[in-house]
Design goal:
The chain is 39% helix and 25% strand. The protein has seven helices and ten strands. A hairpin with a 3-residue loop joins strand 5 and strand 6. The protein is flat, with a radius of gyration of 27 Å.
Length: 276
């Protein structure tokens, strides 16, 4: 019963920190309705990966991005991923940062931050740290069973009576590999022969269809102007990313503009794009 209580306290602390950060702005950006930070799993072995999971429930018109910590201490950041699920009124964005630790004991994970953007502006919000316990990779009875860590032993000469067995095993391995490759080629050829994949629609066609669908919803007339401009920005991001071959949907606004300035974009008015 101790772990759920600990997670609840971390979530409450993170939500309070986020609320104070939003209160420091002009008051136009709504704070998240729920913010949860936890280590998954809460106990990990030395040097083995685990995840810091950050779950944010927020307004649909907002976009959250993860900002890695500047100092990692005894931790190493292996990578991160982002997933967003939209509901009728709110959205839930989940971040998973893969870490590994090289210090034993009960530790605090590095402090991450979140960059929040919506039509009212942008704000950077710190989130709380998660508790994680790092344990040894050796079994508890390592000293008794002789499984402790030892230095590297010098090379030893291993006598081999004959190479015939090795030759036979190598031949069998090559034969098995060739048979597997032949089966794969035959399967791929048969699949391509049976299945006919329809070519994707051109980028401009897909973009125009998305704009037409957004216009039919008539969101401004429903008092949902913020959501209209946010989704219009998403369509534009998708078009620019596919046209100039970069991850526009996963980029922050400064990163998107920097990507566009570094590419050859004839006909694209950067001043109008920046103002938009």
């Amino acid at each position: 019963m101790k772990r759920p209580l600990l997670v609840s306290r971390v979530a409450l602390l993170s939500l309070l920190v986020a609320s104070f950060a939003f209160a420091g702005e002009d008051g136009g950006i709504a704070p998240p309705s729920e913010l949860l930070v936890r280590a998954v799993p809460a106990t990990a072995k030395l040097g083995e990966p685990f995840a810091v999971e950050i779950v944010v429930t927020h307004d649909r018109a907002q976009r959250y991005e993860l900002v890695p910590p500047g100092e990692l201490g005894d931790f190493e950041l292996l990578g991160s991923e982002r997933r967003r699920v939209d509901g009728p009124q709110t959205s839930t964005t989940t971040f998973k940062a893969q870490l590994s630790a090289f210090q034993l004991g009960k530790l605090k994970t590095p402090g991450f931050s979140l960059e929040v953007a919506d039509p009212n502006g942008t704000v950077k919000v710190p989130v709380g740290q998660a508790d994680v316990e790092i344990v040894s990779t050796l079994p508890p009875d390592a000293k008794d069973t002789g499984a402790n860590l030892y230095d590297v032993r010098p090379p030893e000469t291993v006598p081999v009576r004959t190479w015939r067995v090795l030759y036979a095993l190598a031949g069998l391995a090559v034969a098995a590999l060739l048979a597997w490759l032949g089966w794969r080629l035959y399967r791929d050829w048969k699949t391509k022969k049976v299945l006919a994949v329809a070519p994707p629609k051109p980028l401009h066609t897909r973009t125009i269809e998305a704009l037409d669908a957004l216009a039919k919803e008539n969101l401004p007339a429903q008092g949902r102007g913020r959501e209209f401009f946010f989704r219009l920005s998403e369509v534009l991001r998708g078009y620019l990313g596919d046209l100039y071959l970069f991850k526009a949907l996963e980029s922050t606004t400064p990163e998107l503009l920097e990507e566009l300035r570094s590419r050859y974009t004839p006909g694209l008015e950067m001043e109008a794009m920046t103002a938009f």
